[in-house]
């Protein structure tokens, strides 16, 4: 009994704080997290730090190689494309379109989809089972195909792309949250709360939500990945953002014919897509593991 | 002497939906009637699938019974909501690892029934929580702990404290001893007997081990396929079993003892 208070601060950590503590031990995860924060900051303040305006074309510097290659110039750090646009500036502006757009759509569909999922999961009987079967049907269609179908109705364009991706992501969130809430409701600690006389809102707040954080994290990771892939794929197919908007997928398709002449114009936007998706997944998977480990 | 609990023709059948229109009903237990006096312990025994858990759940309001009535002190519980019921009759679940919210501190878990059912001030609640913890042999400091920091015996003590904290008349325990090792089990049994003596609470224990049943219970109900096949004072029933099911249960366990 005497030494019970020693090290108490260190021992009693809430499960989420404990998960965060575990995550901090994961070096790769922390590096990826800092990279993700960097991309996020770049997305927000990009327009102020990009060296050139978005539509700036320098006809005297067409297809300049990146600065570290022979004939490269430092003031076109990543080189230029066939119209003399600075690639670094283009990629920075593109972060707002590709990553920022994906981020916003995911945030919105997370809010709306989870709300529907929670309401469906907490209710029972006919509405819940109709919702369930409806979502199963929707989810059997790949999200990109669903987005293309929606685009074919709305017409191509950047805003319509975001709308289509938003609509394609909704069922993903709704279904996952619905499942998690539904599973959670049958657990004994929820039954115990209900027997204490707790209102559904209180059960949701203290019983269910803290226990389905893992679902939110893993679904958000998946959704961010699939949103970026869908936005860039639609851009690449010419259905999404159109030039001069420097959306990363659009940049790729725009410079595809230059792949032998000026490979960096293809590689760099491609790398931007790849690296962004990679760090999102490293962070997401690390967080998920830490949350699961923090439980026991 | 009027019984604290009287159960009259209580029954439950589960309805299972197959597809949209066809349904099937499974009888968990047929109409059963029994009574329980204050401060006494009733044991419910029977093989698995005989409807013991369903009966325990119906008594505490986890599931709504298909027919029949439950009266506590002569008041029918059917017209009452959870709030009024939980001050009278409380449930302890079988598995303490799933019956405590892993994201809540023990103090919060114990406080929530007080918060929802009493008008106590914050300080009075804290006092009740630490009293309850001490009563079940834990420390006041345990209020800050999360369930994952406790052993399963300690968790079951917390579950007992949660049942006790509203000072109910009846506590229903569904196989609470099954998941504990022998030494922890006997500690918990002694704790339950102490608490019962101090507060004159009636217990309904769903149990498997007939040795323990004989030790702690006054009355016994033997269930088989949803029916009560035998009931009466524990010592009488176990010493002189009339029904083949009771005889078979006793025989199975005697074989186990001899091994
Ligand atoms: N939620 C449920 N839905 C359908 N049938 C159930 C459900 N729970 C229990 N049953 C059925 O009711 C019967 C009694 O089960 P139970 O009360 O758990 O028995 P015991 O606790 O004695 O093992 C079993 O046949 C079981 O299959
Ligand atoms: Mg059972």
UniProtKB/TrEMBL annotation, chain A:
Every ABC transmembrane type-1 domain range: 95-284
Main location: membrane
Segments traversing the membrane: 28-50, 91-118, 130-151, 157-178, 223-241, 261-283
Domain of life: Bacteria
Pfam families linked: BPD_transp_1 (PF00528), OppC_N (PF12911)
Localization of this protein: Cell inner membrane; Cell membrane
Protein's UniProt keywords contain RNA-binding: no
UniProt entry keywords in alphabetical sequence: Cell inner membrane, Cell membrane, Membrane, Transmembrane, Transmembrane helix, Transport
Membrane-related topology note: Multi-pass membrane protein
Entry-linked CDD domains: TM_PBP2
Membership in a protein family: Belongs to the binding-protein-dependent transport system permease family. OppBC subfamily.
Protein's name according to its UniProt entry: ABC transporter permease subunit
Organism: Motilimonas cestriensis
TrEMBL record, chain B:
Gene Ontology MF: a single term: ATP binding
Membrane topology type: Peripheral membrane protein
ABC transporter domain residues: 5-250
InterPro entries: AAA+_ATPase, ABC_transp_ATP-bind, ABC_transporter-like_ATP-bd, ABC_transporter-like_CS, P-loop_NTPase
Locations listed in the record: Cell inner membrane
Domain of life: Bacteria
Keyword Transport attributed: yes
Entry keyword set: ATP-binding, Cell inner membrane, Cell membrane, Membrane, Nucleotide-binding, Transport
Family label: Belongs to the ABC transporter superfamily.
Name this protein carries in UniProt: ATP-binding cassette domain-containing protein
């Amino acid at each position: 009994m005497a030494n019970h208070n020693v090290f108490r601060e260190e021992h009693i950590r809430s499960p989420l704080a404990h998960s965060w503590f575990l995550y901090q031990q994961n070096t790769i995860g922390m590096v990826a997290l800092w990279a993700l924060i960097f991309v996020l900051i770049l997305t927000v303040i990009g327009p102020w730090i990009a060296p050139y305006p978005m539509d700036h074309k320098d006809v005297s510097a067409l297809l300049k190689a990146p600065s570290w290659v022979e004939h490269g110039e430092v003031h076109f750090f990543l080189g230029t494309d066939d119209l003399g646009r600075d690639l670094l500036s283009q990629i920075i502006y593109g972060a707002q379109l590709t990553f920022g757009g994906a981020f916003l759509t995911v945030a919105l569909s997370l809010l709306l989809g989870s709300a529907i999922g929670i309401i469906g999961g907490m209710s029972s009987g006919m509405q819940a089972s109709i919702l369930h079967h409806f979502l199963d049907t929707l989810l059997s269609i790949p999200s990109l195909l669903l987005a293309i179908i929606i685009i074919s109705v709305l017409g191509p364009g950047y805003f319509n792309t975001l709308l289509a991706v938003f609509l394609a992501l909704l069922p993903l969130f709704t279904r996952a949250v619905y499942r998690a809430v539904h599973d959670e409701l049958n657990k004994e600690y929820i039954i115990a709360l209900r027997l204490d006389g707790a209102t559904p809102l209180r059960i949701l707040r203290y019983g269910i939500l803290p226990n389905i954080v893992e679902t939110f994290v893993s679904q958000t990771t998946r959704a961010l990945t699939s949103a970026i892939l869908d936005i860039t794929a639609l851009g690449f197919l010419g259905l999404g953002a159109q030039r001069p908007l420097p959306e990363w997928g659009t940049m790729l398709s725009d410079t595809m014919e230059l792949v032998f002449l000026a490979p960096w114009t293809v590689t760099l936007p491609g790398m931007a897509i790849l690296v962004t998706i990679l760090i999102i997944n490293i962070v997401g998977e690390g967080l998920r593991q830490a949350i699961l480990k923090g439980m026991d | 002497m009027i019984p604290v609990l009287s159960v009259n023709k209580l029954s439950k059948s589960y309805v299972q939906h197959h597809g949209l229109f066809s349904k099937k009903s499974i009888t968990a237990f047929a109409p059963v009637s029994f009574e329980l006096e204050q401060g006494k312990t009733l044991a419910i025994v029977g093989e698995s699938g005989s409807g013991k858990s369903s009966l325990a759940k119906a008594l505490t309001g986890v599931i709504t019974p298909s027919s029949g009535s439950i009266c506590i002190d002569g008041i029918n519980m059917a017209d009452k909501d959870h709030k009024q019921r939980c001050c009278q009759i409380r449930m302890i679940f079988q598995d303490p690892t799933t019956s405590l919210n892993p994201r809540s501190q023990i103090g919060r878990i114990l406080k929530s029934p007080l918060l929802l059912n009493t008008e106590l001030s914050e300080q009075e609640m804290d006092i009740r929580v630490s009293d309850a913890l001490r009563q079940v042999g834990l420390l006041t400091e345990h209020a800050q702990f999360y369930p994952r920091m406790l052993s399963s015996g300690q968790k079951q003590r917390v579950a007992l404290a949660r049942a006790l904290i509203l000072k109910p008349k009846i506590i229903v325990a569904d196989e609470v001893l099954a998941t504990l090792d022998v030494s922890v089990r006997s500690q918990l049994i002694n704790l339950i007997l102490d608490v019962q003596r101090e507060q004159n609470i009636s217990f309904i224990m769903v149990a498997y081990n007939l040795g323990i049943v004989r030790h702690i219970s006054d009355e016994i109900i033997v269930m088989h396929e949803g029916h009560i096949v035998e009931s009466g004072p524990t010592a009488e029933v176990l010493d002189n079993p009339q029904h083949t099911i009771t005889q078979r249960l006793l025989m199975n366990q005697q074989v186990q003892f001899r091994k």
